[in-house]
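hey so i finally got around to running the thing on that chain from the lab meeting. sorry it took forever, my laptop kept dying and i had to restart like 3 times. anyway pasting the input first so we r on the same page abt which one it is
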Amino acid sequence: MDTSHLALFVETAQKGSFAAAARSFDIDPSAVTRAVTTLEKSLGLRLLERTTRRVALTEAGKIYYEHARKLLQDLAHASDQARDVVGSPAGIVRVTASVTFGYRVLIPLLPALRESYPEIEVDLLLSDTLVDLVGEGVDIALRLRQPTDTSMIGTRLAKIRYHVCASPEYLNRHGRPIQPSELAVHNCLRCSVHGHLSPWKFRDASGRVQEVSVDGWLVVSNSLAMHRAALDHQGPALLADWIVKEDLAAGKLINLFPNIEATPTDFDNVLWLLYTSRVYVPKRVRAFIEFMKDKIGEYV
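ok and heres what got predicted. didnt touch it at all, straight out
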């Protein structure tokens, strides 16, 4: 039996359409349809019910799908273990992260990864929505929020700190706030990600926490765009240190409250590395994980 037909059938069942499965494999949808039809003919039964928009597993298809999915996983694990015995870390590591984190941190790290592990290939999936690691075949996720999926193994890579920043030109025009409460009268740049809009939270050296309701004319869904707006003198922005530390050092942005902690959510902001819980973690994935543990502190 052709395992490529099995893989296309499983992908079609998971994605719910031939077109979506074809996009995953970067092939023509007709090739997926032919592969599944050939598989059905060889078995003498129908695995999928077709409609104009979607496909669904038949009762027989549900049984076959579960066994086929496990078989493909077992074959992949067997291949990984066999390769790991005879060689250095090699193969594709599929990684997901937010667009901003990928641009600001991951991409600059890749040359060092390439130098350390020249046989590792990286398939980087950047998205501001949470990606299903199992469904999308992702090996590693880098996330800036506490993991809630107990099936994932999580490693804390770094503490994330936030700063309220504004450009010198903005402060010259509008004055520099001395206390966080004064932000209420400024044109603050806000992020529309859930929980980040307002209020902003502050904690002083004594541990006293203060919430400040902020407002402003610009709301954006991406912190990279908000960073650009802050550099363009549009107002104070609450941004992570890994986004602004170079601009703070260069004087392009000013940290308004250097002695006060700030956050859009809570004060335990951590960069997490997540991977799926499985019996065997391939050498290439282990190498990527150890590399991130070793190098991430230089960028975050």
